[in-house]
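[Automated response] Your request has been received and processed.

Submitted sequence:
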Amino acid sequence: MEDSHIDNPPETLADPSKSQRKRDMLALQTLGRQLVDLADGTLKKLELPESLAEAIAEARKLKSREARRRHLQLIGKLMRTVDVEALTLALERMDHRSPANQRQIQKLEEWRDRLSSGDSALIEDIIEQHPSADRQQLRNLQRRAVREDSPEKMSAARRKLFAYLGQL
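Generated structure:
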């Protein structure tokens, strides 16, 4: 009787429990369901492995609920080879309602407003953060935005400035 624990060693702390493995697989299936629901153009931007992309395309064709459920399990299995954290981060960036995207938009709006009010020191900060930014183009867009600044409506110059800042 004493030797029975030697034959069946207890789980080590490094091994996840069966329940945890099941939760992880369900999370992968949920992420797979999100991928199936994405538009084709958005899906292509993610650069998924070919086998996963084919499985997603096949899942879109299925009409039977049970067949779709089983196929989502297959997609979850295929997703074990994908970097899930990077994929989740990419999906979050593409989601316009995500908190990360909202913070980015708020930062761009703040920069646009400060530049439109004539804050030239901000250009240097932007150049430090984004070395690929064109200083001359930023200054030209700032001059136009300051010239056309009207608080009651969004001028074309301010929209162009916001679009340029978003490209950085």
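Summary generated for your ticket: The chain has two domains: 18-94, 99-167. The first helix runs from residue 4 to 7.
If you did not submit this request, please reply to this message.
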